[in-house]
Amino acid sequence: MNYFELFSFSPSFDVDTALLAHRYRDLQKAVHPDKFAHSTEQNKRLAVQRTAQINDGFQTLKNPVSRAEHLLALKGIELSHESTTVKDTPFLMQQMQWRESLEDIRDSAAPDDLIDELNQCFIDYSQSIISRLAILLESDQPQDWHQAADHIRKLKFMVKLQDELSRAEDALFDDE
Predict the structure, then answer these.
(1) In which domain, by residue range, is 45 found?
(2) Domain match, 56 and 98 both
(3) Does residue 73 form part of some domain?
(4) In angstroms, what CA-CA distances link 24 with 5, 21, 115?
(5) Alpha-carbon distance 94 to 85, whole Å?
(6) For position 122, which CATH number holds?
(7) What positions does the domain J occupy (predicted)?
(8) Assigned domain for 80 exists
(9) What is the pLDDT along the chain (176 residues), one digit of tens a residue?
């Protein structure tokens, strides 16, 4: 299913999330299963299915990573169940440095400063990936789509790192 069509958007990485939320609410009102309470069983089932599609579409399009994956899937490149890893050596080296920094938080003399520094670093790096990804996804060249896939893999890693950082920060508060 093309979620961009469902929400009346042109397929694009850049989505107006406020408009997306507005269209989501409108679609949910139109097909909510309660509106079909006195209808046939088939119509009730269709309403539930349609509601699930709308929910899935909304979750997909509001999240930059899943939106990018959906765009690539529409172009014939499926990433959702793959196990391909990033082969970018500088990025892999940077990953190792970030992981070491995450491990250093607990023993740091100034863990809050290290958390803030890492958080900003993760945000900046993710934003640079997103900026490049937006350009690659707008291209009509298959080689650009494959580069976009690598950027999505990097972005997924950054999301995991951000989660790990949040857990490390929570662990500090738990220890206090």
Answers:
(1) 3-62
(2) no
(3) no
(4) 12, 5, 36
(5) 15
(6) 1.20.1280
(7) 2-74
(8) no
(9) 999 999 999 999 999 999 999 999 999 999 887 777 777 888 888 888 999 999 999 999 999 999 999 999 999 998 877 777 788 899 999 999 999 999 999 889 999 999 999 999 999 999 999 999 999 999 999 999 999 999 999 999 999 999 999 999 998 877 65
